[in-house]
Amino acid sequence: MSNTYGTLFRITTFGESHGPAVGVVIDGCPAGLAISIDEIQTALDRRRPGQSDITTPRKEEDKVTILSGIFEGITTGTPIALVVNNKDQHSHDYSHIQHAFRPSHADYTYTAKYGTRDYRGGGRSSARETVARVAAGAVAAKLLQQYGITINGYVSQVGSIKLRKHYSKLDFGKIDSNKVRCPDGTVAAKMIGLIEDARNSLDTIGGVVTCVIQGAPVGLGEPVFDKLHAELGKAMLSINAVKGFEYGSGFEGVKLRGSEHNDEFYTDAQGNVKTRTNHSGGIQGGISNGQDIYFNVAFKPVATILQPQTTINDAGEEVTLQGKGRHDPCVLPRAVPIVDAMAALVLADFILRQKANKV
Amino acid sequence: MSNTYGTLFRITTFGESHGPAVGVVIDGCPAGLAISIDEIQTALDRRRPGQSDITTPRKEEDKVTILSGIFEGITTGTPIALVVNNKDQHSHDYSHIQHAFRPSHADYTYTAKYGTRDYRGGGRSSARETVARVAAGAVAAKLLQQYGITINGYVSQVGSIKLRKHYSKLDFGKIDSNKVRCPDGTVAAKMIGLIEDARNSLDTIGGVVTCVIQGAPVGLGEPVFDKLHAELGKAMLSINAVKGFEYGSGFEGVKLRGSEHNDEFYTDAQGNVKTRTNHSGGIQGGISNGQDIYFNVAFKPVATILQPQTTINDAGEEVTLQGKGRHDPCVLPRAVPIVDAMAALVLADFILRQKANKV
Amino acid sequence: MSNTYGTLFRITTFGESHGPAVGVVIDGCPAGLAISIDEIQTALDRRRPGQSDITTPRKEEDKVTILSGIFEGITTGTPIALVVNNKDQHSHDYSHIQHAFRPSHADYTYTAKYGTRDYRGGGRSSARETVARVAAGAVAAKLLQQYGITINGYVSQVGSIKLRKHYSKLDFGKIDSNKVRCPDGTVAAKMIGLIEDARNSLDTIGGVVTCVIQGAPVGLGEPVFDKLHAELGKAMLSINAVKGFEYGSGFEGVKLRGSEHNDEFYTDAQGNVKTRTNHSGGIQGGISNGQDIYFNVAFKPVATILQPQTTINDAGEEVTLQGKGRHDPCVLPRAVPIVDAMAALVLADFILRQKANKV
Amino acid sequence: MSNTYGTLFRITTFGESHGPAVGVVIDGCPAGLAISIDEIQTALDRRRPGQSDITTPRKEEDKVTILSGIFEGITTGTPIALVVNNKDQHSHDYSHIQHAFRPSHADYTYTAKYGTRDYRGGGRSSARETVARVAAGAVAAKLLQQYGITINGYVSQVGSIKLRKHYSKLDFGKIDSNKVRCPDGTVAAKMIGLIEDARNSLDTIGGVVTCVIQGAPVGLGEPVFDKLHAELGKAMLSINAVKGFEYGSGFEGVKLRGSEHNDEFYTDAQGNVKTRTNHSGGIQGGISNGQDIYFNVAFKPVATILQPQTTINDAGEEVTLQGKGRHDPCVLPRAVPIVDAMAALVLADFILRQKANKV
Known about the structure:
Chains A, B, C, D: Belongs to the chorismate synthase family. Chains A, B, C, D: Keywords: Amino-acid biosynthesis, Aromatic amino acid biosynthesis, FAD, Flavoprotein, FMN, Lyase, NADP. Chains A, B, C, D: This reaction introduces a second double bond into the aromatic ring system. Four copies of one chain form a homotetramer. Chain A has helices at 37-47, 95-98, 107-114, 130-145, 185-200, 228-237, 258-261, 332-354, and strands at 4-5, 10-14, 21-27, 64-68, 70-71, 74-75, 80-85, 150-158, 161-162, 207-214, 242-247, 265-267, 273-275, 283-284, 287-288, 293-299, 308-312, 318-322. Chain A is of the alpha+beta class. A five-stranded antiparallel beta sheet of chain A has the order 1-2-3-7-4, with helices on one face. In chain A, a hairpin with a 5-residue loop joins strand 17 and strand 18 (318-322). Chain A is globular and about 65 Å long. The model of chain A has no long low-confidence stretch (mean pLDDT 95). At the A-B interface, strand 1, helix 3, helix 6, strand 11 and helix 7 of A face strand 1, helix 2, helix 5, strand 11 and helix 6 of B.
């Protein structure tokens, strides 16, 4: 198991989907940061189930409690423990999946790895674990605010419906203006239609979150292994259902010639170093160069579908499973705050690490 | 700086492109592994400059020396130090780039981050650092051999030329049969033509390496943060020039419905658990499921081009630069052994970590 | 801050003395270990305040709750979160110490380091933090039980009263037979008398805990930095009030000649490798050699005394402070379970790490 | 194995006593530090064998080479690799110890742990490994110089001969004025006599190094686990032959009452916070308080003696061994630079970590 992430701004998460609680301990948040429980709750509310008719209709309040590390509204430099109790953790019937391995879920691999598993709703492998990440991310985002750094994730693709506008043409203020979290209303409407279609077919659909980080200072990232994009990549790939990560020109960029792809430097009127293009995605040699950082994260279609599927049980026998209960037909809208949170955690860690690089 | 990678099988690399040497210390390689210097040298020879007319014509022998950790041909459990001396490190003239920031290189970001930089040929940000990774990867690969794990990377795309065959239709024995390291001769010929065209235009071109890991046992990977694909992603993204990583169905998979994407389990005639499809890329919940693991790694076009480019110097003034010397028109052929090495290092680490998971 | 300890069996603790709760997340405990909440509670009860008239008369129940990681009485390999709520955290008046720096406490250093502090009863620097260690140690001790390893700490010195018997002459079953936790009744009586005398003088007194680990297999410890005794030393020195650590012959051993100090090997009748003497304390080259491991831990007298003391406040002005409330005149009796817990955590970590050392 | 030490200022050491070389990679040294090879060599010369007639008469030059990380005399923020070649590594005959387990050496434990060992002169378990620590310590000490921190270790005890003067009465400038490195000439003469007596008896003798750190700012140390004294303790205990560590009042302090032991704060004429006594050894709550930091380190007598000893071989049979060659009758004089180096490494790491603690 590895449930700790970060070098200096470190989080340790715990909790199963149907255990008593999920939570996080943040170790290394600098002292002197003002943060209220409302700021953390607001971030959790963006991730909360039941927020619209294209997400799971489960109603969970996800109320956060602060157990330590914040005194009189200010961080003290000691570990910050945040806990969210799970609701109704004993009320469901899991007998249909207790012995079966759901297709494309982690039931089989957890059982093989640990010899046992908490079979109630995915246990530790459930995306409910990301509650802890989002709570911690709110603290990290508050720290980044001191440095003028903003993070804006949005849904840029659902199935084959793709937002083709460059991010600079978008109004990030509109990300939360619709239930799919795509800041372009026209494309958002098509995405919503597609998700509804998937839901009505008792099916699910995948998509892409694009994330833009602005205001980051030059110098973040720690080569040769902890390059800024390598850590962003790992952080994103550690989120449930993620299948790919690319930054800057990404997979499309491989088709270009060097002469097309290179970003020329220039000095602007204010004397700032800039690049004319930004195929580099704001990162060169693994270190932020002061331009916008942007990247894409691919999410597969949700594995739980409300159709019968053939699979096997832990005795190796073929069985038929049918998803029950209330599930997301598409994780993308609720994935946005999770991507934002992980990006904030990566940046906060590098902000702290960067302090140690010069005499 | 962060020059250590891995939790139990750990490597620490050092060295600048034009300093006296590059090298690696491997800490945590289990005792009792038989390994010869020739096995390490063979891996380095696949990465060596000057191996064909579509790579850099620089001639470097890259002879490895073992300083510690291997006694009478057997690892002793103590740190293994491997060093490769650099050739002619004082022979070149770097005055043209001493004060200039080459476009899409790390000159600017290193200078901003550290306040200073070794300007000779990229210094620490040079891909020469990967010599150390390949040497360490050869030791990791030898360990994996004890577990029946094989790793086969190959060039699957150069520019827009894409090998469309599924990996199961390829003969991995043919990867090294041509100079571009694409196991399909017809596609390889087209790729080589494209690279030659780029080279003749004094330009460069990007591409994709696909890597297939076979024989991995069920259970590798440490959720929730050190998921198998999250570590593979970080390891790949930490390689110079990499812009993206996807595994299994990757970015294309987002277009599918859950009912299409889910991999049904079945029990084969020998009683083994298998999946009928493998959109999961051999990884579920961040843990290997016993099926083939496969992923793609995108490499941008090489930033050094032999054409004049406009940029700025460290005084912020506009200057014109022109690449000199002998550079790769396309890194893909030489990237294959580097991808293989990083994959081996990730797997070796998880093999060791997995030992601690059950009572 | 650094609130995580261990490499593979890792604990992260949180909580202030007068915040809502203290707790711990254990990451890396192997799956399949049977453990009940009663076993954890029993360990906490040995540390609990108010257990005798020579410890603090504060009454705290210290009831532990399991939030995750144990399902149907068995560890699942996922993080185990244990929480103990603090009682009456709002009921006290701390105005007398809000601005004063208590002598030989951490008030001044925390304020200087973090620019702020939770002034209620020591906050994070309070020994209440060790509740978390003892809870985690109970899980580690259960793991060690699978390997036949036992740990027995006892009070071997209070002030100048020293138990001079070698540990092999003691009955560890009697450690808890008296309130000072010294297994020799006669010496225990003297120690109790001395503690009562200190208490009656409104003063405090220090002492030494000796700890004996038996049944450890040969091979635990990871040179050259994580030597077994180096980690035991760090773990013990990280406990509040500890001033020194020695193992085997310790500080007295420096007076011996090599010919007196060396431990000769022999093979016993059962064919086991043994040493005739054990000045090495069961550890050679940082690795357990199969003999008993034993060490001493020095605890200073408790800093809170019920007498007036001169000190300064955060404005640098001289003030007079007088300890209030219910404090331990001597921490030694309650230190025993904490030493045991930390020893168990160190051993459990090395048991897991040792699995990765051979092919 | 664990051959890396430190969190932000990290060293990784490698090398066996009779392999080609020993060395160290320093990762995380800030950029912009001026350091010359002579400064590193000077530190190594204090540790060098053959420096006087009370140390081993082996002649080794221990010439250091810089492979990376320092460019034009300035650290670049990239890993600093330092290598010292071993002399005559093939010239000796080890057949007498190839199969025997020397008493109180690590031959038996290494063989049991790893299943194999480099039997030439102790291999990795030899104190020759400390060459790497001393080289790295010189770089750390140069960093500390920027912060006004000085470290002075000296021999305070050999056998039963103890320097009873408080360190404040000593002239640290005289530490290197005699061959035993005790700054009091009269006591030094007695110590030298005792070592000569041990040597003439074909025996060895132990002792204590006291170390004083001055000029450290308030705030170093990272509770609750990485307390300043806990890391100092681990660092010292990781040195070959160390059996104990105590700081401030140490083991003697346990005899005191709290009213005697507490260090009262006051404000001096310059407005600085000070303590009237310093039983705390400059550390409270695991954090430096601005007063002098001091501690003692106990070293056992050298295990290699030139007398016959009974032991067993790897077949379990009794054999008689007699030390050959040139060995130290007492490690204390040469231990001083090693203690200094480890102290410098611990302080350098905390200086960097402290930068991340406030917003």
